[in-house]
Design a protein that fits this description.
144 residues
């Protein structure tokens, strides 16, 4: 059985942030599990796989590829609220040198990051489906 912690480590290796530093272990678990729940629900090709949100583990051992796929989707869902934040639409003033900075550039970079994560997620989901069909061509179903 793969624990959620293993998937969390894949996700955390893909981001750099300080926002999790001040969270307690329980708060961090809640945050990460919410991202995992949303992301795993979109992994429709993972047949015969379920998540136990009480025991914090999957019903079987996930492959590295499967954990990587989930983590790319977690990155995309991690970035989405930041993109949708109204604060990014406001202008900010730097008190250090009194220059006005547009948040449009920052927003654009966040959107690029999210889109790249989604691109990776979809690429690897397609690749995963293809590999599964190669493993068992008689039982393969085209899911696209």
């Amino acid at each position: 059985m793969t624990s959620f912690q293993e998937v969390y480590s894949y996700f955390l290796s893909k981001i750099t942030t300080n926002e999790y530093i001040n969270l307690t272990e329980a708060e961090l678990e809640v945050e990460l599990q919410q991202l995992l729940r949303i992301s795993f629900a979109e992994c429709v090709s993972f047949k015969n796989t379920s998540a136990d949100y009480v025991l914090n583990e999957f019903n079987r051992d996930l492959t590295d590829l499967e954990m990587n796929i989930i983590s790319y989707n977690m990155v995309a869902h991690y970035l989405s609220p930041k993109i949708n934040s109204i604060e990014l639409l406001k202008q900010s003033l730097s008190s250090k040198d009194y220059q006005m900075y547009s948040q449009a550039n920052h927003l654009g970079k966040l959107i690029e990051l999210r889109n790249e994560s989604l691109k990776q997620f979809h690429y690897w989901m397609n690749r995963y489906g293809y590999l599964k069909r190669l493993e068992n061509p008689k039982k393969a179903k085209v899911w696209q």
